[in-house]
């Protein structure tokens, strides 16, 4: 039996650009990867990430509906496709407690801050405003509390005096792309 048959079946949830999806996909095609991307679900009809996944022939769904309809449909897809891990990658909605409880598989997220600092939005602006020395990103388990689950991996990025939100987010995104595949491999 081919080794790839033992790889974990991942679903990626996203809302936009999808650079983390692209990066995870690229890694999934390499030998050390313990996962394959089997399903992509977006809550936005026009998410660029979905165009990418369709171009790679990954099963892709846009469920641009209420959160409860989104969760119901996603859960049945997850079960039908025997998904083993859900990765949130730029997924801009909060999953309900019911969804997290009903989902019997790990859900992980990448967040652009050094959690537990700066949960939620505008993380880079807050780090610059507070004159922090470091920013960074965190891969963590998802629970029913926002950005509060166990940390799997975290990496720092130095904030320079000249950094703006734009330059800092670019630097942090680069590091996100480094750590997300490693973190995912760790739990697969
Ligand atoms: C990333 O910065 C991620 O940490 C945050 O949303 C952004 C998504 O970027 N949750 P992309 O869609 O993966 O390019």
Number of helices: 6
User: CATH superfamily of the largest domain, please?
Assistant: Formyl transferase, N-terminal domain
User: What kind of sheet is the major sheet?
Assistant: 7 strands, mixed
Total domain units: 2
Name the CATH class of the largest domain. Answer: Alpha Beta
Provide structural commentary.
This protein is an alpha/beta fold. The longest helix has 23 residues, at 165-187. 36% of the residues are buried. The radius of gyration is 16 Å and the shape is globular. A 7-stranded mixed sheet has the order 3-2-1-4-5-6-7, covered by helices on one side. Helices cover 36% and strands 23% of the residues. The mean pLDDT is 96. Bound molecules: 5-O-phosphono-beta-D-ribofuranosylamine. 5-O-phosphono-beta-D-ribofuranosylamine binds at residues 14, 16-20, 89-90, 110-112, 137, 173, 176. 5-O-phosphono-beta-D-ribofuranosylamine is lined by residues 14, 16-20, 89-90, 110-112, 137, 173, 176.
In short:
With 188 residues, the protein is α/β, with parallel strands linked by helices. 36% of the residues lie in helices and 23% in strands. The chain is globular.
Compile the SSE list and pairings:
Blueprint: E1 8-14, H1 19-28, E2 35-42, H2 48-55, E3 59-62, H3 67-80, E4 85-88, H4 97-102, E5 107-111, H5 123-129, E6 134-141, E7 151-158, H6 165-187
Parallel strand pairs: 1-2, 1-4, 2-3, 4-5
Antiparallel strand pairs: 5-6, 6-7
The structure holds 5-O-phosphono-beta-D-ribofuranosylamine (GRF).
